[in-house]
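Researcher: Good morning. I'm working through a list of sequences from a screen, and I'd like to move beyond sequence-only analysis. For each chain I'm collecting a predicted structure so we can compare shapes side by side. This is the next one on the list. No need for commentary yet; just the structure.
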Amino acid sequence: MNKESRPSDDTRLDACGCCEGEHEGPAIYNRPGLPALAYRIGTHATFFRSMVAGLGEAIIPDGQHAGARPLDALATRALDDPSISLLDAAATVADVLAFYQERIANEVYLRTSSERRSILELARAIGYELSPGVSASTFLAFTLEEVPGAPKIAVVPKGTRVQSVPPQGKLPQTFETAEEMTARAEWGTIRPRLTQPQLLQGDVPYIFLKGAATNLNQGDRVLIVKGGTFNNDVTVQTVRKVETAADQLSTLVLFTPPPISVQPYETPYWLGPGTIDTNVGLKESSIEEYIIGRRWTDRDLNVFLSINNWNIDDLLDHLERMRESREVAQDVKVFALRERSGFFGHNAPVYQSLPKDAASNVIYPGHNWDSGWEIWKDPSSDPVDYYSGADVYLERSIPGVLSGSWAFFERSNGPGEVFRVTSVSERSLAKFAITGKATGLVLATHDSEDLKNNIPSKSPNFLVRDTTAFVRSEELELSALPFLDALGAGDTKLLLDRLMLGIKTGQAVILTGERADAAGVTNSEALVVNAVNHFAGYTELTFKSGLEHPYRRETVKLNANVAPATHGETVREILGSGNNAEPNQRFVLKRPPLTHVPALTPSGAKAELAVRVSNVLWDVAPSLYGLDSRGQSYAVRIDDEGKASVIFGDGERGARLPSGAENVVASYRTGTGPDGEVEAGALTLLQTRPLGVRGVTNPLPASGAAAPQRLENARENAPLTVLTLDRMVSLQDYEDFTRSFAGIGKAQAVALWDGESRLVHITIAASSGKPVDKQSILYINLLKSMDAFRDPSRQVRVDSFRLLTFDVTANVIIDPRHEASRVRAEVEAALLRAFDFARRAFGQAVSAAEVTTVIQRVPGVIACDLDALHLSGEAPGPDDPPGQILPAATAHEHNNEILPGELLLINPLGVKVSEVKQ
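Model: Good morning. Structure tokens for this chain:
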């Protein structure tokens, strides 16, 4: 009502205009991006004021004159008046209607809806279902019985059930194998090849000898003869160090100071490819020619063995007996020279020091003796040459020097010389003013043709006082050369210690060993076989991806009796009876939650549910919409409580159920979510034991689980369905597709340059906030799904994030009206909430201002003094914390290496909040 139309008399109750009502609803405008819509046209107060103000309005009913105001006489506005009370009740009704009108308006938009049912229906309108969660997955490694008579091959069927041993306060979890697997006894413990042929070519810096009792010491001389007895390739080495292996099976003899580098193993690339010949018998010559002398793929070798009817066990036994001899060089012999001696007369007095009438100046012909000590004859001796019958005499009698042994004469200032001993004698000599027993040697040079005919060589040429003899050679037994290097991170090939048949491409194996970069730390990882090749009697495995860590070779073992397994227990349930007269029959599964397992689908998961009607398997459909009247399909819907319902058609959209008694039967699995992420080694209880299987374990922890999707996730992920349309072209498509994949909590796509071409790098995190293991089924399925829906010309790399944490030290002034301990606890809780996994993004930095704002918003905090803000493990900087910003990087290239994105979170143990008194 306009003020001008009101009477001017003072009897008007609202002459001041204070009772003027609100007759029109407010103009409602909501800016984009708000979390809730303001859609109420009024509240109880505004409705009530408007109706009270309307009491003075002109009422012109039909048949009356204009301007009549029959309610003017109602002068009271007291709430206890029946008329005013009626208006108050009407305002209450309007307030309730306006409230629900606003709620309905909010529920029809995805961003502002708050009811799970609303989000479910809105998401379904664009073909998106809220994720019901996904079960954890891992690999189970089986071992077979090894007692006599036990089967060497066992079939582990799909659905083999294994239960965990729970920790304190947890419930046991059940896992089932996802596919059938054939296990073999010899696959339970597969070792890498630990030794290789000891070639001993060129300069020999070391040798490996068999056993521990070599009796070699530092300074001893070792003779190495290569190529045969009469070959001139003979070297003498001085022992620098002797190391006995921990297993006491071999000894390393170093001739050069450590460290040493073991010769790299060269794959025998010169071997020709195997040919599938027929009518080849199993004999030693055939094994040498076809198995040891050729290269085979696993398929071709198995075909060859099958066609020629070779017994595999006999073949493997023969190769085992041949293995040691084939790894030791046959044309190399090693001798330890056990005795060190001077020559007879080396300690005689110097000739010039003797009386002149005691000797003559006759130089013994044929010998180049030191002119400072000329050979002279003792007048008391017989005139016969004392060297008759030997080329040299050693200074003493040395038992054990045999004909055919080796001798080495080492000069102090020149090269030494190696001889073969052709004859040994022992005489008592009295010459040069000395007497004693001496061993005489008849010598031949090791490369002399005369040695073949037993013809002694000419007298050796050396200085007696300047030469040392090393004699009494003893042959040492060579061992195979061990690989001293570790298995390197990134290695894609592994040579096994034997011929291993039957391992197939695509088969998973578990590698376990002690890490070379972390002493005492044992680690396991899953590898997928990409190729199997056999050569020289050994098997080489090539993996699809390289090793994640380096390993000490001697600690490594593989288990190829591996099957993927997922969390969940199979149950069989009679849902009820079909009734052809009833449309859209609905049955609720009695054992929630329904298991959803990782799958090669755009969503990354599928329900483990099979429904049979009258013993006929019906198909599951995303929706009944679009089905024809004969479509034997059903839809699955999960309500707010996690209960799954199976819904059938109405005869127009999907076929109705045929009538029958208890003819609707479901087989499904129950169990899902983070409870299934058990630790490594927890799954050890076989609930179903296949014949021949002894035990089981999970070398890797279960991972990849996700809880049922929260409303916040649905608001973010539901639009991704229509944004990507299950294909990836743009950079945003890659990020959206990955983020909507079941089990993935965060994803960020960045375009990078790898030095040669552009690639899409995606940093990911699991829904649980943990990194995604590259050997996990979640990671493998993600890559396979991306390959199926992405542009094949684009290079893609997916890595887990790098976690960074920061510490906070703050002093707060607390309102004395509040309990100080509670305020401090609320400050710590607020910081942990604000900077946890759910609220932070890859590459998102943290500033001192942001931390201070979080603290100041806590009720009871008057003021905040931020003392320190720094990365965990680092000391605060000089400007910390005023203006401090802790950076976090997205995926980037650094020093020719691509690094994943960083996630900067607060350290739960690094928050320190103290109270400061005013």
